[in-house]
Amino acid sequence: MEPEDTRVPDKKRKRRCLLLLCASAVLLIIVLVVVLGVTLNQERGQFESIFISRCEKFKEYDCQNVWSVFQEAYINKDPCKVPTEAYDPLIAAAPFKPACNRMMFWSKTKDVVHDFTEKTDCFITLEDTLLGSVLDGLTWCGKEGSSATFTTDCPGWTQCDNNPVRSFWNRASAGFADVACGDVTAMMNGSLITPFSPTSIFASIEVKRFNSSRVRNLKVVLVMQKNAVANCTNMSLKNLEEELDQGINYDCKEVPESQIKECSVHPEKPCGSCW
Ligand SMILES: *[C@@H]1O[C@H](CO)[C@@H](O)[C@H](O)[C@H]1NC(C)=O
Ligand SMILES: *[C@@H]1O[C@H](CO)[C@@H](O)[C@H](O)[C@H]1NC(C)=O
Ligand SMILES: *[C@@H]1O[C@H](CO)[C@@H](O)[C@H](O)[C@H]1NC(C)=O
Ligand SMILES: *[C@@H]1O[C@H](CO)[C@@H](O)[C@H](O)[C@H]1NC(C)=O
C-alpha cells in the first residue's frame, strides 16, 4: 500500500510541476510580448504625438488626416529613395496660404530670424506655417518592410539626396515660395563670404519660384555682425538680382544684428520700421 500511496501523488506532483512550468513559460512570453509592444508603441507614438500636438495648435486642420498623408510619403520605403514629389499629397492636404507683404525667407540666419519673427508678429517664415512648425527640428524615416516611423538611424542631410527629411524641406520650401506675394523679405548673412550661396535652399529652390505676377519686390536684409565680410555690393547678391523673374524689383539693405535684436525686444514698433 505504502509504495503505491506515495507513487500516485508523485505522478500527480510531476504533472502539476509540468503544468506550472508550462504556465510560467506562457506567462513569461505574454510579459515579453507586452513589454516589447509597449516599447515599440512608445517609439512610434512619440513622434506621432509630437506631430499631432504641434499640429493641433492650428485649429483649421484635421491633424489625424495630415498625419496619415504625411506618413504615406516615406513609410515602408528605402530612406534614400524618397523624392520631393512624395510630399505632393501632403502639400495638397495642408496647403500654404499666401500672406502678402509678410513672407520672410532666410539663408544661414535661422536663429536671428526666428527670434525676430516670434517676438514681433510682423513676418511669417516657413517654420511658422503648419507643416514647417510641425516638422521643425525633427528627424524621421521609414524602412522597407515596416509600417513604422523611425527617428534614429535615419540618413543624414547630405548622406543621400532623396532622404525623407531633406525631400520634405525642399518640397515645403518650394510650396512656400510658390505662394509668395507682394513685398517679400529675405534675411541673409553678412558674415559669409558668399551670402547668396548657389547651394542654399533659398538660391536653388525658393528664388526660382518667385513669380512676378505675384511678387512685387524682394528686399534683402543683410544682417551685419561685427565680423561681417560681405555687403550689399557683393557679387553673389548681384547674381540674386539677376536671377529674379523679370518684373520683380530688388533692393538690399545692410542692417546691424544689434538693430534687429533691439526690434525684437521692443516689438511695439510698427512692422517694417526696423530697417
Ligand atoms: C552667419 O553665419 C555664421 C557662420 O555660419 C554664424 O556663426 C552666424 O551666427 C550667422 N549670423 C546670423 C546673423 O545668423
Ligand atoms: C509665373 O507664372 C506664370 C503663370 O501664372 C508662368 O507661365 C510662369 O512660367 C511663371 N514664372 C516663373 C518664373 O515661375
Ligand atoms: C563693400 O565691400 C567691398 C569689398 O567687398 C568694399 O570694397 C566696399 O568698400 C564695401 N562698401 C561699403 C559701403 O562698405
Ligand atoms: C562676393 O561674391 C563673390 C561671388 O559670388 C565671392 O566670390 C566673393 O568672395 C564675395 N565676398 C566678398 C566678401 O567679397
Automatic annotation (TrEMBL):
One term under GO cellular component: plasma membrane
EC number: 3.2.2.6
Gene Ontology terms, MF aspect: NAD+ nucleosidase activity, cyclic ADP-ribose generating; phosphorus-oxygen lyase activity; transferase activity
Family under the similarity heading: Belongs to the ADP-ribosyl cyclase family.
Pfam families listed in its UniProt record: Rib_hydrolayse
InterPro entries in the record: ADP-ribosyl_cyclase (IPR003193)
Protein's organism: Parambassis ranga (Indian glassy fish)
Keyword entries, A-Z: Disulfide bond, Hydrolase, Membrane, NAD, Transferase, Transmembrane, Transmembrane helix
Protein name: ADP-ribosyl cyclase/cyclic ADP-ribose hydrolase
GO biological process annotation, one example: positive regulation of B cell proliferation
Listed SUPFAM superfamilies: N-(deoxy)ribosyltransferase-like (SSF52309)
Bilayer-spanning residue ranges: 17-40
